[in-house]
Specification:
single chain; 135 residues
């Protein structure tokens, strides 16, 4: 049953570390971790704010996962171990989902970045660089 108790504990450490990186604003956009919705991927600022907001519930999920692993180890029988593991994993996912919703809402409140006029600001007159080459 030791292996079963390791599942929520390891999950908790990984999730908690991701929350800590989000809180410290060290979570890179180029990786798969963090709150990843259309609103959060809109800009670096939106991604940073969303993951900072989601950090507290995510770190709490990490603590819950580790505590569930410890509780599973302390159980005297198999049923207790399975229940502690199951409830711990479900609680981790619920807290992470709640953090994701909060992060998405925070990112939605950030205004979208302003796109440059024309074809990216190359001063080609708005007709596009390809139009200048056809003359």
């Amino acid at each position: 049953m030791f292996v079963l108790a390791l599942i929520p504990a390891v999950l908790g450490v990984l999730v908690g570390w991701g929350g800590f990186l989000g809180w410290r604003e060290k979570l890179p956009r180029s990786r798969g971790a963090g709150v990843r919705t259309d609103a959060t991927m809109r800009s670096d600022e939106a991604f940073r704010v969303a993951n900072r907001v989601a950090a507290v519930p995510t770190m709490a999920a990490g603590v819950v996962g580790v505590l569930a692993g410890v509780a599973a180890l302390a159980m005297p029988d198999t049923l207790g171990t399975v229940l502690a593991t199951t409830f711990g994993i479900v609680a981790v996912f619920v807290l992470v989902a709640g953090g994701g919703v909060l992060g998405h809402r925070a990112a939605s409140a950030i205004p979208a970045p302003v796109e440059p006029a024309g074809c990216g600001g190359c001063a080609c007159g708005g007709g596009g660089c390809g139009g200048a080459a056809l003359r």
